[in-house]
Every structure is written in structure tokens, then in C-alpha cells.
Amino acid sequence: MASGGLSLLWFVAVIALIPLALWLLKRTPLGRGAGMPGVMRQVGALPLSSGQRVVTIEVGDGEGKRWLVLGVTAQSITTLHTMEPQEAEPDASAPITPFASLLSRLQAPMRKGVRSTD
Q1: Tell me: the pLDDT tens digits for 59-116?
Q2: Do the beta carbons of residue 79 and residue 69 sit within 8 Å?
Q3: Which residues have a Cβ under 8 Å from the Cβ of 58 and sit 6 or more positions away?
Q4: pLDDT given for residue 61 in this prediction
Q5: DSSP letter at 96?
Q6: What are the backbone angles phi and psi of residue 29, rounded to the nearest 5°?
Q7: Among candidate residues 93, 66, 96, the one with its CA nearest the CA of residue 82
Q8: Global pTM?
Q9: I want to staple 71 with a disulfide (CB 3.0 to 4.6 A). Which of 22, 46, 78, 83 is the partner?
């Protein structure tokens, strides 16, 4: 019976080490594709519906660098356009305000003007 308990203990240890190994791999250069730095990166994305979006990615390095505009659905990825990299990228420092925040700012002045008749 001791052999069965030891086997169970090893099984649990191996199962517990799998997420740990994946977590470590994700944070090492080996897991990030250190052999090919800068080969591909996402420039922007525009969701069209729940299952469709338009994505712009940059591929290549140096003079061979290109931007690909892709149509992405659950079934396929289609190249919509290929172009030279643009000089001015979208301003990443400008925060995108969520819709809920915008709505609450618009409703605040309206709440001050409306009084309850209790």
C-alpha cells in the first residue's frame, strides 16, 4: 500500500509542476522567441463585431518591414492590404476612455439640474 501512496504523491507533484514550468517558460527569453526578436508585432486592432476584427501587424525587419492589414474571423484570416510602415504611429500615450466613464461624466451635469420631488 505504501507503493500506491508514493505513486499518488509523485503524480500530484508532476501535475503541480506543469503550471509552474509553463509560468517560468513564459517569463524567460526562450518562451518569448528570443531567436527572432522583432519579427512580428501588432500595431492596432479594430473590433467590428463579436467574432470579427481588423488587425494591423508589422512583419519583417529593417528594409523588409511591412504592415499587413488583416481581416480576422473565427474561421479565417484574410490579408486586406499590404503597405509600407507608417512614420507616425497612433499616440499610445493618449488614454482611451471607456464608454461607462464617458457616460457618467455626461450624466453628472444632468443629475445636478434635476431635483427630486419627494
Answers
A1: 887 788 889 999 999 999 999 999 888 875 555 555 666 777 777 777 776 666 655 5
A2: yes
A3: 40, 41, 42, 43, 65, 66, 67, 68, 85
A4: 78
A5: P
A6: -60, -30
A7: 66
A8: 0.46
A9: 78
